[in-house]
């Protein structure tokens, strides 16, 4: 039975990030979620599982709180999960994340035919973990895929490039990163959520892995972005609409 | 040769990267080298626009993707020891950059919007957006070479200079890659229109059905603008092609005027319009985040507002 691994990240939901009084990021009322693009990776894994009769494995590395995300990934239709957790894993850079994922895939999951990642995490969106993981494993990497199928020992993928689309074939095992338009992830129902609790999860602690190398990127500051706009409001009656059009004309942006 | 390397797919990208490459190399007292793999005829052009050296990658058979060049590029980078490698933040550029960074075991700053050379510390400080655009992150690469991908149109094209000399050299052919291109579908991208349009009318989820796009098209026509959309319109409903999707994961637009119709204003979308001169919005939800990002907002039902607005603009 083929095995497909979906990698995902449990991230801060950016919609709840506020700008603090001195431009700092206010995370006090944030919630967490599986990254938007990673949901497409999981959905594509589950779709292929259903069409190929494959085993779908969810894999994540993160803070211990990401256990909620593991359950979410299982309720989205994956069969089992591997979860590398440590309280120091909140700020890994892409190279470190890829190293940990590669180690788990090589030594714990062992058998795999395809690895699917989202096009990027929805928090830092560096879009590097997929390619870096493929390089660690020495397998082909096809990024920004919008259509994917598997035939025998090779995959056929349509990937987006500047000029249009390239249709690619690659031998398996391989890694793909998927674009959001590849599918529409379904929202898990109550039954799926209940069943998720019964599926196997392999937890891996930091000290079970080889020592982690240092980050290749160092963040020196992280501040709320500024968006200074007039924020002027207008009503809907004709006088207000005329005032609105007048405001645009005054700015010289319409004729 | 140490210095700044740029790796690009076409002339337009080369000239933009040469601009920032030249600025930095001047400050760092270094040279600029360009690696070209498609627009080979632009060698002279690259030299005139700031390259001190051009490395030419040999043509590939049609079924080989440009990623095949990576082993050759790695080999050259190990010999040449550049201090900084820049690629465009296009799908291909991002993929190639990440694969190169992985092999060189160095850091890569994705979609970098600003690079500064800190002369005191002799470090490159690079800026990018995070959390869907809600945050600005400043980062430093801890290993050499530093690498970054730069979104298209972040920098203007470099200006040509007369009398420049440059060294040109051919790189060896790569071996065959396991990845094969079996078909190329060249698409007439509509995105070109919205990235260049002076007015962009953007459709969001507030539009109830596909036929109602006509309202937005009418407004675009009156204003001589182009149509764009938010992610759900393209990716869930497929009412418009995905290359009209404005936002962090889509296209960035910089028009004189952006008007969002029924656009809620999620941070990823707002990030894609942050360089518009004026942002206007029509939305019935008083609490929609778009109003915090807009200069002028009409709080009201777009089906009531739009006909009035179009009539007023026609006056």
Structure in a nutshell:
The complex is a heterodimer of chains A (255) and B (315). With 255 residues, chain A is an alpha/beta fold. Chain A is 28% helix and 32% strand.
How would you describe the overall organization of this protein?
The complex is a heterodimer of chains A (255) and B (315). With 255 residues, chain A is of the alpha/beta class. Chain A has helices spanning 36-52, 67-75, 94-109, 129-137, 190-196, 238-250; strands spanning 3-7, 10-12, 18-19, 25-26, 32-34, 55-62, 80-85, 114-118, 141-151, 154-161, 164-171, 174-178, 201-205, 217-224, 232-234. Chain A has one domain (3-208): Rossmann fold (3-Layer(aba) Sandwich). Chain A is globular, with a radius of gyration of 22 Å. The N and C termini of chain A lie far apart (64 Å). The mean pLDDT of chain A is 95. In chain B, helix 3 crosses helix 4 (91-104). Chain B is built from ten helices and 16 strands. With 315 residues, chain B is α/β, with parallel strands linked by helices. In chain B, strand 1 (3-8), helix 1 (11-28) and strand 2 (31-36) form a beta-alpha-beta unit. In chain B, the strands form three sheets. Chain B has a seven-stranded parallel β-sheet. Chain B has a five-stranded parallel β-sheet with strand order 13-12-14-15-16. Chains A and B meet through helix 3, helix 4, strand 9, strand 10 and strand 11 of A and helix 4, strand 5, strand 7, strand 8 and strand 11 of B.
Overall outline of chain A = globular
Give the helix tally of chain B: 10
Strand order of the biggest β-sheet of chain A: 11-10-9-12-8-1-6-7-13
Distance between the termini of chain A: 64 Å
CATH topology of chain A: Rossmann fold
Taking Cα atoms only, what radius of gyration of chain B do you get, to the nearest Å? 22 Å
Shape of chain B: elongated
The number of E-state strands of chain A comes to 15
Specify the CATH architecture of the largest domain in chain B.
3-Layer(aba) Sandwich
Output the number of helix runs of chain A. 6
């Amino acid at each position: 039975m083929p095995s497909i691994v979906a990698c995902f990240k449990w991230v801060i939901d950016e919609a709840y990030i506020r700008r603090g009084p001195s431009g700092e990021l206010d995370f006090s009322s944030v919630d967490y979620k599986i990254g938007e693009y990673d949901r497409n990776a999981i959905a594509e894994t589950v779709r292929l599982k259903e069409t190929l009769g494959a085993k779908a494995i969810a894999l994540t590395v993160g803070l211990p709180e990401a256990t909620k995300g593991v359950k979410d990934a299982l309720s989205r239709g994956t069969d089992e999960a591997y979860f590398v957790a440590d309280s120091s894993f909140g700020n890994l850079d892409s190279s470190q994340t890829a190293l940990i994922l590669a180690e788990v895939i090589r030594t714990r999951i062992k058998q795999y035919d395809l690895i699917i990642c989202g096009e990027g995490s929805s928090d830092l969106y560096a879009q590097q973990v997929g390619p870096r993981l493929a390089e660690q494993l020495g397998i082909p990497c096809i990024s920004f895929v919008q259509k994917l199928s598997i035939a025998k020992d090779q995959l056929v993928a349509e990937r987006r490039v500047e000029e249009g689309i390239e249709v690619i074939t690659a031998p398996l095992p391989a890694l793909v990163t998927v674009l959001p338009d590849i599918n529409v992830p379904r929202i898990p129902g109550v039954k799926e959520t209940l069943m998720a609790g019964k599926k196997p999860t392999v937890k891996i602690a930091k000290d079970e892995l080889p020592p982690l190398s240092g980050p290749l990127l160092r963040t020196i500051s992280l501040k709320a972005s500024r968006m200074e706009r007039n924020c002027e409001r207008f009503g809907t009656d004709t006088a207000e609409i005329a005032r609105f059009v007048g405001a645009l004309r005054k700015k010289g942006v319409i004729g | 040769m140490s210095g700044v390397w740029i790796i690009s797919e076409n002339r337009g990208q080369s000239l933009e990267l040469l601009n920032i490459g030249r600025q930095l190399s001047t400050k760092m007292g270094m040279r600029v080298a360009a690696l070209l793999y498609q627009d080979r005829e632009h060698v002279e052009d690259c030299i005139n626009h700031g390259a001190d050296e051009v490395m030419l990658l040999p043509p590939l058979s049609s079924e080989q993707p440009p990623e095949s060049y990576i082993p050759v590029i790695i080999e050259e980078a190990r010999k040449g020891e550049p201090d900084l490698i820049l690629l465009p933040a296009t799908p291909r550029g991002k993929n190639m950059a990440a694969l190169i960074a992985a092999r060189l075991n160095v850091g890569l700053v994705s979609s970098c919007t600003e690079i500064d050379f800190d002369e005191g510390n002799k470090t490159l400080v690079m800026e990018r957006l995070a959390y869907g655009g809600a945050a600005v992150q400043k980062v430093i690469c801890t290993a050499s070479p530093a690498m970054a991908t730069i979104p298209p149109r972040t920098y203007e094209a470099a200006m040509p200079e007369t009398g420049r000399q440059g060294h040109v050299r051919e790189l060896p052919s790569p071996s065959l890659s396991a990845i094969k291109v079996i078909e190329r579908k060249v698409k007439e991208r509509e995105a070109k229109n919205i990235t260049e349009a002076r007015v962009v009318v953007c459709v969001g989820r507030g539009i109830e059905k596909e036929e109602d796009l006509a309202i937005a098209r009418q407004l675009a026509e009156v204003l001589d603008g182009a149509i764009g959309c938010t992610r759900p319109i393209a990716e869930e409903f497929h009412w418009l092609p995905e290359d009209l999707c404005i936002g962090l994961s889509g296209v960035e637009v910089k028009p004189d005027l952006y008007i969002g119709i029924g656009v809620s204003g999620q941070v990823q979308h707002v990030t894609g319009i942050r360089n518009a001169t004026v942002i206007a919005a029509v939305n019935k939800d008083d609490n929609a985040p778009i109003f915090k990002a807009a200069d002028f907002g009409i709080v009201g039902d777009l089906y009531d507002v739009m006909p009035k607005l179009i009539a007023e603009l026609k006056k």
